[in-house]
Amino acid sequence: MLTPTLVVVVVGLLLWPSRVVGQRLTALLPSASRCRGNVRLRDRRVAAALVVSVVVGFVLTAGVLVTGACGLLASAFLLHRRSRVRARAVVEDLDHVASALHGMVAELRAGSHPVTAVDTVAGEAPSGLAERLRTLAASAKLHGIPDIDAHAGSAARTSAHLERVVARVATAWSLAVRHGVPLADVLGAVHRDVESTARAARQLDARLAGARAGAAVLAVLPAAGLVLGEAMGAAPVGVLVGTPGGAAVFVVGAGLLLAGVAWTSWLTGRVLP
């Protein structure tokens, strides 16, 4: 029964490109960044082809209902993981922005020019934030004040809350230039507000850890029940994957589990900034 699936998996693994080979080709070719992007695109295409091949093989072996149920379970796992990764990213991004603002204020109070201060901080910031800060500095060099819309294309590579903070920095910079207000004082107020937001996000993330753990335990309980049933000799797995009624129940249960994970992710994600 599993022979077609195993054959498809083996063929896919044989066609999978080596990361070392891609790195060597990137180092040898002149257009390093473009070639690296082509290698990554090829990796994604091969990965997609492998996933499709495995799914087709699994459908031929286990049936449509069982495959759909397994897909729902995989979607629930990925949704839970994406929610957790997003929460961590929000906290980390706010911490990085607060640290960057603190560095800018320190540089300005030390007598540095605003453009120099931003360039200095951008050299130590993460790539997405550093790119946005450098665009602000470049527009300030050209126009005297930063233009938040001058390089809007780079905003697609940063998160929404990072863009809001960068827009506030640009607005504060423009107001300081137009009205003669010390930029260090204005950015200091922005830094205090962002720092308080980052602190609140860390506290919320810590408080939501228990809710996420409880949701994960509830999601795993059906699997524990299946293991217990197999240990008792009831063979629930055989019923779920070997009979039409069991497969239908499997699909319904997987759908309910996915709905529960989605609901929990929505509840825990809406309270974060």
Describe the protein in words.
Residues 32-37 have low confidence and may be disordered. The protein contains 10 helices and no strands. Helix content is 84%, strand content 0%. The chain has one domain. Helix 4 runs antiparallel to helix 5 (114-122), helix 4 (64-109) packs antiparallel against helix 8 and helix 4 runs parallel beside helix 10. It is mainly alpha-helical and 273 residues long.
Supply database-style keywords.
elongated; 10 helices; 273 residues; mainly alpha; membrane; 84% helix; transmembrane; transmembrane helix
Which secondary structure elements does this structure contain, and how are they paired or packed?
Elements (H helix, E strand, L loop, with lengths): L2 H13 L3 H10 L3 H31 L1 H46 L4 H9 L4 H17 L16 H20 L3 H50 L3 H7 L1 H26 L4
Helix pairs in contact: 1-3, 2-3, 3-4, 4-5, 4-8, 4-10, 5-6, 6-7, 7-8, 8-10, 9-10
Number of strands: 0
Radius of gyration: 26 Å
Number of discrete helical segments: 10
* Mean residue pLDDT: 76
Report strand %: under 5%
Helix content: over 70%
Give the end-to-end Cα distance, rounded to a whole number of Å. Answer: 50 Å
Total of domains: 1
- Note the overall shape: elongated
Coarse structural class: mainly alpha
Main beta-sheet annotation? none
List the helices and strands in order: HHHHHHHHHH
Low-confidence stretches: 32-37
Transmembrane segments: 46-79, 209-228, 248-267
Protein name: Flp pilus assembly protein TadB
Organism: Saccharomonospora glauca K62
Keywords: Membrane, Transmembrane, Transmembrane helix
